[in-house]
Amino acid sequence: MRKILIVGATSGMAEACARLWAQRGDHLFLAARNPSQLQSVGDDLRARGAARVGQKVFDANDLSAHAALLADATQTLGGLDTVLIAHGTLTDQERAQQDVGYALQEIQTNGTSVVALMTLAGEQFAQQSHGAIAVISSVAGDRGRQSNYVYGSAKALVSAFASGMRQRLAKQGVHVITIKPGFVSTPMTAHLKQGALWAKPEQVAKDIAAAIDQGRRVVYTPGFWRWIMLIIQHIPEFVFVKLKL
Amino acid sequence: MSQAAHQRVFTSWGRVQRVAHTALGVSSRHAPLSLPADAQSVLPYGNGRSYGDSNLNPGGALLLAGQLDRFIDFDPATGLLRCEAGVLLSTVLRLVVSQGWFLPVTPGTQFVTVGGAIANDVHGKNHHVAGSFGNHVTQLELLRSDGTRRVCSPTQHPDWFSATIGGLGLTGLITWAEIQLRRAVNPYMDVETIKFGSLEAFFELSQASERDHEYTVSWIDCAFTGRRLGRGLFSRANHAPAVMDLSSLPASLLGGVSETSRRVPITPPLSLINTLSLKAFNTLYFHKQRAAVVRSVQHYRPFFYPLDALLEWNRIYGPKGFYQYQCVIPPDDALTVTRRLLHTIAHSGQGSFLAVLKQFGTPASRGMLSFAQPGTTLALDFPNVGPRLHRLFDELDRIVLAAGGRLYAAKDGRMGPALFQAGYPRWREFSDYVDPRFSSGLWRRVTETT
């Protein structure tokens, strides 16, 4: 039985993970910004028979609230061994190109706030000599593309930070798992044209849960994204600048 | 990724129409409705199990109501369930059966949403005792395009409640509903299957079975004219009682409990259903059962949802898809009219494996546009073979209209305004409750003034 803190618990992927974990008897602590949505997700898990669900309204951009969140989750669950960091926003690339304030805000929400949380969780798990930190990065972080490089660069920060932290903390029994989802059908992306590359949150959740259980390091979900991104990363710059990606 | 809305192709269960729509997400029951930026109309789309165009909105937008899939509260002591409207009946069953509860009414598939079950006021094999799904809804919330929310029940906004039950999703978005479940101490059914040789025998069996059996339905052979017309298999059942010691039964009797399912992997280039395969299947199916009466214990899943075991079975009708025709005939001439319908179908050489006949009972439906009413309901699938089929439908329509019957909108993709308006005399009253931003392919077709 795991004791899991889920940050950004109302996101489609995180909620799918929460249902999976609740079903198998794990204890959960949910954190999200929108109080009514957080309540909905918590009520749903309890109705489905979750053994224990705590919850707290939490804004990841309020960095001063991070330590209290970890303390609350640890106290409510009587310990903590897993953190899933899943909060984020879908950045409007065109707006970010013209509005510096907005661009930096998006980098903070999707990048630096994640770094802050990982730092605190990493210290706590290193002290107790065990724990798993799964962080949702993105295939968008593997190479900046004109269509979404503001979001992508925030995720690149997360991926690089997770890589270094994984190396440092592996010796102390702490697993850091970088999750790189491709396109996922959630209410947030319902309006977008969806082709064969799109995955359902339930599929992605299965991959995330399995990655944590098996102690994997970097996970593309669905798995074929590893090969797509391998190709994209290896396109020479002089060709890349001419592409529409 | 750009924020601009893209068109996505949606189809209904009959697969006759493939229509591009603007797709709009529904992230939370607390959020305001997302509406298209221009004057386009919207329609809630649940799990896409309506057969025709009552769940499509060509030229407009669809609200992906299936995303509202959270439970709100379930009290195992009273069986009162409150959940968001996009929760599937299969999900409800998975939660409640192990706690001693069951759906008060269920249609022939468990893959419909609670909102869809309400909006079509679906019925099941227990209509003669339980009425339709809407009869068990204790309250629901209706969200309108102007942002207003109404909690509706038989006593609170009863007019809105009555418009929304069976209201085809046109009165606004149902965000959540509360349903009173029925007790079922175990997941098994005590089932009797009886062969009958004529329509008269069907009516006699129905009448004789209704008092002591909660569930009745029959499969009827509509492939043959003459002597074999009207033969079929009558099935009647009750939930297995608690005293029945299941462990004493052989494992084979308790078969079919596995949740695994197969999927039709591709759409064949031609319909696999044609006159030859139909006659062969029906003859085999009728004679598969040797004895006149067979009694067995079945898990609820194969009993209620035999077709759900074959996911996407609708593909067997090929790329042109299929229509379902379901009518209800008032009790007075039900025997004569049903015989005329069957004869017309058999004579045409069209028709399908899935011909179902059932006597509705007297519990009154609550919806202004509810389909179920006292009488006999007949439902059949037809491969879409083009004009020849539509000529048959026109003939059937004339019989139904003359008998004072009506067609089921959830199954319909082609009826004209005259038949709809005659069958649903409260449609004008209902139209006052239609949300000005909501519409559907079916609604525009059946309200057309010519």
Give a verbal description of the structure.
The complex is a heterodimer of chains A (245) and B (450). Chain A is built from nine helices and seven strands. Chain A is 49% helix and 16% strand. Chain A is globular, with a radius of gyration of 18 Å. Chain A has one domain: 3-Layer(aba) Sandwich (Rossmann fold), CATH 3.40.50.720. By secondary structure, chain B is of the alpha+beta class. Chain B has an eight-stranded antiparallel sheet. In chain B, α8 packs antiparallel against α9. The longest helix of chain B has 16 residues.
Strand tally of chain B: 21
Strand arrangement in the largest pleated sheet of chain B? 16-12-14-13-19-20-18-21
Q: Provide the gyration radius of chain A in Å.
A: 18 Å
Using the coordinates above, name the CATH class of chain A: Alpha Beta
Major sheet of chain A, described briefly? 7 strands, parallel
Spatial sequence of strands, sheet with the most strands of chain A: 3-2-1-4-5-6-7
Structural class of chain B: alpha+beta
Fold-level CATH name of one domain in chain B: Uridine Diphospho-n-acetylenolpyruvylglucosamine Reductase, domain 3
CATH superfamily of chain A: NAD(P)-binding Rossmann-like Domain
- Which blocks of ≥5 consecutive residues of chain B have pLDDT under 50? none
CATH architecture of one domain in chain B: 2-Layer Sandwich
The tally of domains of chain A stands at: 1
What structural category characterises the helix and strand content of chain A? alpha/beta
Number of helices of chain B: 12
Distance between the termini of chain A: 43 Å
Question: Which two chains share the most extensive interface?
Answer: A-B, 26 and 27 residues
Note the main sheet of chain B.
Answer: 8 strands, antiparallel
Q: Tell me the helix content of chain B.
A: 10-25%
Annotated CATH architecture of chain A: 3-Layer(aba) Sandwich
